[in-house]
Structures are given as C-alpha cells and as structure tokens.
Amino acid sequence: MGAEGIAILCVDDEDIPRTVRSLVLRKQGYTVVAASSGKEALELLESGGISLVLSDQMMPGMTGTELTKFIKAARPWMPVIIISGVNEVPVDAKYADRFISKVGGPELLFRTVAEVLEHYSNPLQKDLETP
C-alpha cells in the first residue's frame, strides 16, 4: 500500500519528537496532522480524513493507551499505533493495534505503519485473524 492519500495523526506532547516523526513520515509520502495532546487529537479526529493515529504513550493529561481507548470506543475501525521510549508494555496497550519502541528508529516505524495500514485495507485478512 502506498503512502499517497493516507493521513496520519501524529500525537506527542513534546515538540521535537513530534516534529521529527512528522517530517520522516512526510518524507515517506504520508500527509501528517500533528497534535500535542490526547484532547487535541480527539478534536482533530472529529474533522475526519485521518487514516491512522500514531501516539506517544507518556503524555500528561491522557496517555497513549487512554487515547486509544477513546478512539476505539468511537471508531473501532481506526488503526492506532502507540510509540514509547519506555519498553515495558502497559496492560491496556492491548487496545492499540501495535505498541512499538522509539529505540527501533524510523525503519521500525515505517514498517509498522505499512503493516497496520495493509491489515486494515484487507478485510479478508482481518476475518481470518479474528478468533
């Protein structure tokens, strides 16, 4: 699946990681919309046009897993990836489609985004993987 026409909502409370992640995703051809909090991300989702949410885990006010629960409750079809510098996977990370480490760098990020988008674009694959 190509990046053209795919909008990623990039959520991180820290400016530099959010900006860097946005830039590297844009270089891959994705459209990127940035949010500095879970609350802002939920507001941006209301406007539509988002294909995938990429959220930092450790944010004040609302963690990435808390944001994921809100997103999945309202939009179960919305793919969500949580990225974290803390490699311990939180119990409620099960609501996200993937939980990846920032240590994996851009290649892990690109591969994970492509895999999750491919999974959501192939309904037969989802049916086969549903227990």
How would you classify the helix and strand content by structural class? alpha/beta
SSE order: EHEHEHEEHH
Specify Rg, calculated over alpha carbons. Answer: 14 Å
CATH superfamily: Response regulator
Describe it for me?
With 131 residues, this protein is an alpha/beta fold. It has a single domain, classed as Response regulator (Rossmann fold), CATH 3.40.50.2300. 44% of the residues lie in helices and 18% in strands. The chain has a five-stranded parallel β-sheet with strand order 2-1-3-4-5, with helices on both faces. The longest helix is centred in the C-terminal third of the chain and has 17 residues. The chain is globular, with a radius of gyration of 14 Å. The two termini are 25 Å apart. The C terminus is likely disordered.
Explain briefly what this protein structure is:
With 131 residues, the protein is of the alpha/beta class.
Draw up the topology in text:
Layout: E1 7-11, H1 15-27, E2 31-35, H2 38-46, E3 52-56, H3 64-74, E4 80-84, E5 98-101, H4 105-121, H5 123-129
Parallel strand pairs: 1-2, 1-3, 3-4, 4-5
Helix pairs in contact: 2-3
